[in-house]
Amino acid sequence: MNKKTLHLAATLTVLSTLVFGSPAHAQQSCNYPKGTFDQVYCDAKVLVRADDELNVTYQKLLKRLSAGGQQTLRQTQRTWMKERDGTCVATDPKWGSVVYGDCAVQKTTDRLNFLNDRLRECLSSGCQASKLR
């Protein structure tokens, strides 16, 4: 998990405790967010979970690839992270870096689905480095 995501998650966890009071209340709030802060908190939870799953899937896929496939996967992952950050992060002179939660969740979920597809291919019909691009 990158530092921005970790910082966002930690901040939102503290805020959620202050705003919601208990984890059970926070979970209920995610089912029916009542406002922007509720939605930001819930988006952060989804992002952290998706990012964790992405990291696990990435490592599983990496272990199944040849050396050339590993190099390709690492490069495409770096490219994806730059694209995600370029699309989903902005810098505000007053507030610093701003992560657009919905964007980050969508990009991370899309990448997770892509990596899961490649892992399934490796397991069923063999890894195809050409599909890692």
Detailed description of the structure:
The chain is mainly alpha-helical. It has one domain. The protein has helices spanning 3-20, 23-31, 36-64, 67-88, 101-124; strands spanning 89-92, 96-99. It has a two-stranded antiparallel sheet with strand order 1-2. It starts with a helix and ends in a 9-residue tail after the last helix. Mean pLDDT is 83; it is low at 14-26.
Set out the fold topology.
Layout: H1 3-20, H2 23-31, H3 36-64, H4 67-88, E1 89-92, E2 96-99, H5 101-124
Antiparallel strand pairs: 1-2
Write down the overall geometry: elongated
Widest β-sheet, arrangement of strands: 1-2
Distance between the termini: 22 Å
Relative strand content: 5-15%
Query: What is the tally of helical segments?
Result: 5
**Structural class of the secondary structure composition?**
mainly alpha
Largest sheet: 2 strands, antiparallel
Number of strands: 2
Return the average pLDDT rounded to an integer: 83
Structural domain tally:
1
The helix content is over 70%
Which consecutive residue ranges, at least 5 long each, have pLDDT under 50?
A: 14-26
Radius of gyration: 17 Å
What is the N-to-C order of secondary-structure elements (H for helix, E for strand)? HHHHEEH
Structural features:
133 residues, 77% helix, mainly alpha
Give a short synopsis of this structure.
With 133 residues, the protein is mainly alpha-helical.
